[in-house]
Design goal:
The structure holds three protein chains of three kinds.
Chain A lengths: L11 H48 L12 H8 L1 H33 L5 H13 L2 H12 L4 H9 L13 H25 L3 H9 L4 H30 L2 H6 L6 H10 L6 H30 L6
Helix pairs in contact in A: 1-12, 2-3, 3-7, 3-9, 4-7, 5-7, 7-9, 8-9, 9-12, 11-12
Chain B lengths: L3 E12 L2 E12 L3 E5 L6 H9 L6 E6 L2 E2 L10 E4 L11 H11 L4 H14 L15 H13 L5 E5 L7 H18 L2 E6 L2 H7 L2 E6 L2 E6 L1 H6 L4 H6 L4 E11 L2 E6 L2 E6 L9 E6 L5 E3 L9 E11 L3 E8 L3 E8 L9 E5 L6 E4 L2
Parallel strand pairs in B: 3-8, 3-9, 6-7, 7-8
Antiparallel strand pairs in B: 1-2, 1-4, 4-5, 9-10, 11-12, 11-14, 12-13, 14-20, 15-19, 16-17, 16-19, 17-18
Helix pairs in contact in B: 2-3, 2-4, 3-4
Chain C lengths: L1 H12 L1 H28 E2 L10 E2 L2 H8 L3 H32 L5 H8 L7 H15 L5 H25 L3 H9 L4 H30 L2 H6 L7 H11 L2 H22 L5 H7 L4
Antiparallel strand pairs in C: 1-2
Helix pairs in contact in C: 2-12, 3-12, 4-7, 4-9, 7-9, 8-9, 11-12
Classes of the chains: A mainly alpha, B alpha+beta, C mainly alpha.
Chain lengths: ~300, ~350, ~280
């Protein structure tokens, strides 16, 4: 506006100031965007990127030293049979609970889709484990499934041939079940929303073409909601893979990666930060690698016929 | 009644290499209902957004009631606008939606209520004051939008394809309603649409746009009967185009040779023998006669290739002359089957020519 | 896949009985642990094979408050939660506006990067956060623990708020402008009422996260910043199950209240994106 008509400014300072305003004018939009993103970027670098970088560096340092480079922290953990067992255990728990969550969620969502009596109550029940601290869930589960809990009481009193309490707590299958309790809502809710967004007229079209209700379910509904189920199962897997508080108090001798990391810095004196960092790096890499593979699988085969 | 209310003067707007408005110039008189008509992407929406101030033109000025408003922010332009997507405020009741422009202008509450009630009466929505937009049907929502646009008697009412989100029956009803309200208030209105029927039915004048430019400006009759270009003719639904060459000019008529036939049409200024012209014929204005009808001026023999029954009319594809194809619609009383020989008569005044390329 | 098919087929055959059995077991499966906790927290002398505690008492709550220092712990939790909510909401509003309403090159990539913390197990970066906070002496301060929580809360706030801002209809804003509202009035009367639910949702999500957050807290807390989950964890370690149960009840009630409050408004699938109580 009129800037071009002004006589040339007499002083160099004025030139500079004019340059500044011109710069502001042309880049205003970009600068505002950068300004808006600044807090998020600061948080990202300060609370995620830099800590991760530090963990990477630490994982290559000899234990207790601030200088020098070594691969020992990795090799020691990976060469140790216990270390490999920890990795295997983490995968067993995460994959087992993910599979069980899918098996539980699919029929559950199909039932709740039919608006049975009290379906809203059941929907709410499904959400409960999501808002509860994992710690509290684990505590209640330990109490319920323990040798003096209702589960064993029921077995002892009403089931023949059960003479002594059945061990659930601190076993691998018990822990898997606890994981399911905590993390199946991710799968279930995603499956339910996939079912809800399904156009009923597509099923009608299937029925009109001569498919019975089972066939409609098998050939139409399931293929269409598979992407939703898989997306939800990824969330369950991620949560189960990274689970920390539950195995910490309910795992007993079964310590998946997250607990193993914490053990390294909490039990030995002095704390073994480098060892912990190395295990953390292994854990992070394993999760990223697995997710990448999983996504590729989902995109190639698992998600055929999905509407989105 | 001849002073300009809205004036676009050489308005140009570019998006990268795309020119949305290319030296667009248009004047809308006070109290006039002007329609900007054109296919999507012709720049009519850009022109509207330049007028609301939502987009700033790269070049050119815009005048509103004699004042240059090119640099004025939207909210100071004193406009009323009806949106294609309704754009009601979803969190406000009908009365608050309609009263919003008044609240912004700090009008006292009792006066506000009176004006809101009046606006709602104007669009026949009394009794819906405390409904939320989501509780209303599409037609009702659009009437709320109209009431909101009119409530404070803006200088200008803008309508951006207000009917395209409604179903066909409602569209016709609302078309009539908008026309009535605008006429009753005597307000200047600019209506943007791609629907030629809407434009012809509503407007005092129609401005047809193409590629960011004004293609033709005129009353609905002028646009419909005397299109000035092939684009306009096609856009308002003409389907028979015949290329020919002027053979002779006789005061107010001229003879045009088309595919071995000689057609007599009204003469064009500055067009003499040898010029190429383009003839337009409306399918429903060609007379279809028995093969034994008397010969005469603009009467030709033709052969029916295809006949389709459309209820009250028959739709024919005909061939005549040297490889000419014509589409003709006539009433279904008298029918010809495929292969039948017929005679056609082109009414002279209905046969319109423009200079060819 | 055949296993899955047989399983589903079996369920299908006896669907009505099975359906209700499934729903009932689900209810029991989810609710029973809470019943056990609740009973344990008010039971006295509950040993051996008994279905219900023989005596009721509120002693464990008294113990929890007096020995477990619950009021102090609650205060810590709320202060830390408030700081975390404010910081992550500010981050979320700014970044959400940029992602939801502004043009920028590489938006998707940037968004994926900023949301990366959700893809990595918290314990892996919690280590680095703890190490940094030790050197900055932020460990065992309200600000430090709250900032650790922000690393978990902020991605969700950004996610929720960019969706909110993206859903804001440009035409509605234009309509307000045409009606005569200037930028400030447009913001007060139109933008704010429309985005307020989203901001509230993001604040509730952030608070629930902070309230439940365990992993990062465990690595950054100290004697002065014990939060409820930490206090409960410490009590579990001490082995007093009754007192732990009482604390758990105190801790769970607000969570359930929040769930009851928001369940009518928010869609469950949004909650999945919003909550993660590890």
């Amino acid at each position: 506006m009129g800037a071009g008509n002004d006589p040339p400014p007499p002083f160099a300072a004025a030139v500079q100031r004019d340059g500044m305003t011109a710069f502001w004018r042309t880049h205003q939009s970009t600068l505002v965007t950068v300004f808006l993103l600044l807090p998020a970027l600061a948080g990202f670098f300060g609370l995620f990127f830099y800590p991760m970088l530090l963990t990477v560096i630490l994982s290559f340092r000899p234990e207790g030293h601030e200088v020098g480079w070594t691969l020992e922290n990795y090799t020691r953990f990976l060469a140790d049979p216990d270390g490999r067992w920890v990795i295997l255990l983490t995968f067993i728990l995460a994959l087992g609970s993910t599979a069980l969550s899918v098996l539980l969620s699919v029929p559950l969502s199909l039932i709740l889709r039919e608006k049975v009596r009290g379906h809203q109550f059941y929907r709410l029940m499904i959400l409960v484990p999501l808002v509860i601290p994992g710690l509290i869930g684990a505590l209640g589960l330990l109490l319920f499934w323990g040798s003096r809990g209702w589960f064993n009481l029921f077995l002892l009193q009403f089931m023949p041939f059960v003479q002594r309490p059945v061990a659930v707590n601190y076993t691998i299958h018990g822990l898997t079940m606890f994981y399911v309790w905590l993390y199946f809502p991710y799968t279930c809710v995603t499956t339910m929303s996939a079912l809800e967004s399904l156009d009923r007229s597509i099923e009608e079209a299937g029925a009109v073409s001569g498919a019975n209700r089972w066939q409609v379910l098998r050939y139409i509904v399931l293929p269409l909601i598979t992407p939703g189920i898989l997306a939800g199962s990824v969330l369950t897997f991620m949560a189960a893979f990274g689970a920390f508080s539950v195995p910490l108090i309910a795992g007993g001798n079964y310590r998946p990666l997250a607990v193993e990391i914490y053990k390294q810095i909490s039990i030995p004196i002095p704390a073994r930060w480098s060892a912990a960092s190395a295990i953390a790096m292994i854990m992070g890499l394993l999760q990223v690698a697995f997710l990448t593979l999983y996504m590729r699988f989902v995109r190639r085969g698992g998600g055929t016929g999905g509407p989105r | 009644m001849t002073d300009a209310m809205i004036e676009f003067r050489d308005v140009t707007k570019r998006y990268g290499s795309l020119v949305a408005n290319d030296h667009f110039t248009l004047t809308i008189q006070r109290g006039e209902l002007m329609t900007l008509l054109g296919p999507s992407g012709c720049g009519k929406t850009t022109a509207l957004r330049c007028l609301t101030g939502y987009i700033r033109p790269d070049e050119g000025r815009i005048f509103l009631d004699g004042k240059d408003v090119t640099e004025l922010p939207t909210h100071q332009r004193e406009l009323g606008m009806v949106f294609q997507s309704f754009a009601l405020f979803p969190h406000m009741m009908v009365q608050d939606n309609v009263g919003f422009p008044l609240m912004i202008r700090n009008l006292p509450k009792d006066q506000r209520q009176k004006m809101v009630a009046e606006a709602l009466r104007l669009v026949r929505l009394e009794g819906y004051e405390t409904h939320y937009p989501r509780q209303l049907s599409g037609g009702q929502q659009q009437r709320v939008g109209l009431a909101r646009a009119l409530v404070y008697r803006p200088k200008v009412l803008l309508l951006d394809e207000p009917l395209s989100n409604l179903d066909a029956k409602l569209r016709e009803e609302m078309r009539f309603e908008i026309k009535e309200v605008v006429t009753r208030l005597g307000i200047t209105a600019m209506y943007v649409t791609h629907d030629q029927a809407e434009a012809l039915a509503l407007s005092d004048r129609v401005a047809i746009m193409n590629r960011g430019r004004l293609e033709q400006l005129g009353t609905p009759e002028e646009i419909y009967e005397k299109p000035q270009s092939r684009f306009v003719a096609e856009f308002i639904g003409l389907s028979n185009f015949l290329e020919g060459q002027v053979q002779a000019v006789d005061r107010d008529t001229m003879a045009v040779g088309v595919g071995g036939l000689q057609v007599t049409v009204p003469a064009l200024p500055r067009i003499g023998p040898g010029h190429k012209v383009l003839l337009f014929l409306r399918p429903n204005e060609i007379e279809l006669l028995r093969p034994d009808a008397p010969a005469g001026m603009n009467v030709f023999d033709a052969r029916v290739e295809k006949a389709t029954y459309l209820g009250d009319t028959m739709d024919y594809r005909l061939t005549l002359g040297q490889g000419l194809d014509l589409r003709v619609q006539s009433d279904a009383q008298r029918r010809f089957g495929p292969g039948a020989q017929v005679r056609l008569r082109f009414p002279r005044v209905r046969c319109w020519a423009i200079p060819g390329d | 896949m055949t296993l899955m098919k047989a399983y589903l087929r079996g369920l299908w055959e006896g669907k009505f009985i099975l359906g209700y059995t499934l729903l009932l077991s689900l209810t029991l499966f989810i609710a029973a642990p809470f019943l056990m906790i609740a009973l344990r927290s008010v039971g006295k002398g509950w040993f051996g094979r008994l279905w219900l505690p023989p005596q009721l008492t509120l002693d464990w709550y008294r113990w929890a408050v007096e020995v477990g220092n619950i009021p102090e712990v609650m205060k810590n939790t709320l202060i830390i939660g408030a700081i975390a909510v404010i910081v992550s909401t500010v981050i979320g509003i700014f970044a959400g506006w940029a992602f939801g309403r502004r043009q920028m090159p590489g938006k998707e990539v940037l968004m994926a990067i900023i949301l990366l913390p959700r893809m990595i197990p918290p314990i892996t970066y919690a280590l680095g956060v703890a190490k940094i906070f030790y050197t900055l002496e932020l460990v065992d301060t309200y600000l430090g623990v709250a900032m650790a929580h922000v690393s978990v809360c902020a991605p969700y706030a950004i996610l929720v708020l960019s969706a909110t801002f993206e859903g804001l209809d440009e035409r509605v804003l234009e309509a307000a402008g045409v009606c005569g509202a200037n930028t400030i009035k447009r913001f007060i009367y139109v933008v704010l009422p429309l985005i307020l639910p989203g901001i509230l949702a993001s604040m509730i999500f952030s608070f629930t996260h902070s309230y439940n957050e365990f992993t990062l807290t465990l690595l950054t807390y100290g004697p002065n910043t014990v939060t409820l989950p930490i206090r409960t964890y410490l009590a579990v370690g001490d082995g007093y199950w009754e007192i732990t149960s009482a604390m758990a009840v105190i801790m769970v009630v607000p969570s359930l209240l929040i769930l009851a409050m928001i369940q009518r408004r928010a869609k469950p699938e949004k909650l999945v994106g919003g909550f993660k109580g590890v």
